[in-house]
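Name: Major facilitator transporter
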Amino acid sequence: METTNSLLAEDGTTGSTLSANRGVMLEADADRIFGRIARRLIPFLFLCYVLNYIDRVNISFAHLQFRADIGLTEASYGLGVGVFYIGYVLFEVPSNLLLRRIGARRTIARIMVLWGLVSLSMMFVQNTTQFYIARIALGIAEAGFFPGIVYYLTSWFPDRHRAKVMSAFVLGIAVAGITGGPISGWILGNAEGWHALHAWQWLFLLEGIPPVLVGIFALWYLPDSAATARWLSPAEKELVAREIAGNGSAASSHTEHFGAALRNWRVYVCAFGYFTITWAGSVLNFWAPSVIRNAGVSNPWHIGLVSAVPYLIGAIGMVALSRHSDARNERSMHFACCALLASAGAVLLGTAHASFVPAIAGLALVAIGYLSCTAIFWTIPASFLSGTASAGAIALISSIGQLGSLMAPTAIGKLTAITHEISAGSYLAAFVLACGAVVIGVWMNNRSK
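Structure predicted for Major facilitator transporter:
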């Protein structure tokens, strides 16, 4: 090494230049490896999330038909949407802590198989009580999936790649909306009476089988970590470990243990921020079909097609805003601006929900803000958490935040039942989103790096 350096020095190349060139080469090698990891992991995880979201929100289409069959009111529908998150919240932290023990591969497979079976069982629901029970069971089955994937991805990618990687994963929400809406609409419009079953029963059956199959496949396909990935060489595994470790050591304020994370005020600020995001998700995922129908579209197939438009626009906006966040290496103000955008969309939805073009524009703004916030948000806690704290605290933040998913549909459903329109619920969601923008924009600005 000394001989090499002296020869370079004789040629006029300084030691600092050599170090800088080596650093550039190492970063280029790392980016190439992380690109290969992304191409291996993200498409599969993306597929898992698409299936997850379709099975979670297909209720928004099914209820257009089955509410008459099981005696479901608008208020009881909102409550049924919300009670899903009771089991989800209670079991989310235990699921992520278990992931640390048994690995991501078995955890993801377990969750997918269970939720697919429970989602499929929704076809047997005959009354409101059974509807509530099935929704709670679905929440228990799905608990830990999203925070588990977030933790899994942070263990593979350093901070400079995370918003881009998370946006690729969260794109699954948009694709679920783009594809799930038309598919659900087609099933509802064409499957009535097949083998003496209602169309909504076929909806749950046909959309519940794929996650079971993909979950079984995950046992073979997913590695638990870079250290166990057979498709990485020993040198590549070492480079990934060094990059992740270097990313962690760059911030002395990183929290290593779950007990310490529970005492970290930033965890609870982030939890409130995530709480507000879920209000936008509730408006978009559970009331979009109703909004579109009230705006003048009656055919289920056409409702499904139109419902894809806001998700498509939201996906384009999310990719652009996430890349901009990565390029600027700034998170909190990007989150705040996106939350305000979703808030503006909710206001527009409240003022003009009965008119087709303004209604779709409002849903599109909510979609851009919601998807972008979700992708950017998870880079914030990852910047000050590591070790066991990362798995547990990410699940804790998600659990607290998901209380919004319990409160939002319940409140919006009750307000809609009272006023016979979504305006009051939209304005409430807009207010909550604006509060989230202020809290994250002020309290986490330059404090989580």
